[in-house]
Amino acid sequence: MNYTQSGDSRYGTAEEVKTKENPMIKIYEDNGLPFVDSKWLRERNHIQNSLQAEVTRLLLEANHSWKVEQVEAPTMIPNELVSAEYKDNDVFRTQDFTMKPETTASSYEYAKYMLDHQTTKPPLCIWQASKSYRRENDQVSANVRLKEFYQQEFQCIYTEDTYKDYHELVEPLADYLSWLLGVETRVVPSDRLPSYSEKTLDIEVETPHKWLEVCSISKRTDVPFGWKDKNLLNTEFAFGLDRLTYARML
């Protein structure tokens, strides 16, 4: 694994490099809406289960007080819960609801529900593995920029006075992904620092034609509630399950 800057130019475009047959199946004319077969589904499920176990292990190793809870929220969320980072031309929106572009907002709602009902206390990790939807520009499938895609996101919520920097987990996570996928990985500063993040790092994997971002780790300051008299922070681990599956199957 190498720590370096993005933009490595030693790879050509997807059209210039001969790779194995793309494991995604294009049936619709529109780009970004592929079909996948049973082998893909088995691999994706294996990756999802492996990441759940590894992230849980790393959190508990850092602090045995973590409670890790899976939840499944509706595909549509109220418009007012969508991050201001997403504009109308980024998402699929109706008058009242939006097809969720990420799972964060609904995980926040569930975390608040748990804390309000005193079923737990920080540190609390809420995670989801589900589809998200964005109006991505048409690109070749090798870029794996899909309009409908699977994310696995861990919202790791803790009080702001916590001394532990959970960004330290990015290195063991990158090493684990390298082992899980059988490819090289590297950690790079994100080329886009969202307004809600103090720090964002990306994990990229090496494919035959490019370095592909598969995970972002952000220290988020937008937790919309507190706990007792303390503010809360969130270290978010966001994995692109489709990209991880693509890299493993190549």
CATH homologous superfamily classification: Bira Bifunctional Protein, Domain 2
Overall pLDDT:
88
Helix content: 10-25%
The domain count comes to: 1
Strand content: 25-35%
Q: What's the story with the biggest beta sheet?
A: 8 strands, mixed
The CATH class? Alpha Beta
Describe the structure.
The structure is a single chain. Helices cover 24% and strands 27% of the residues. A hairpin with a 4-residue loop joins strand 8 (197-206) and strand 9 (211-220). Helix 1 runs antiparallel to helix 3 and helix 1 packs across helix 4. It is globular, with a radius of gyration of 18 Å. With 250 residues, the chain is an alpha+beta fold. The strands form 2 sheets. It has an 8-stranded mixed sheet, with helices on both faces. A two-stranded antiparallel ribbon has the order 3-4. The longest helix is centred in the first third of the chain and has 25 residues, at 38-62.
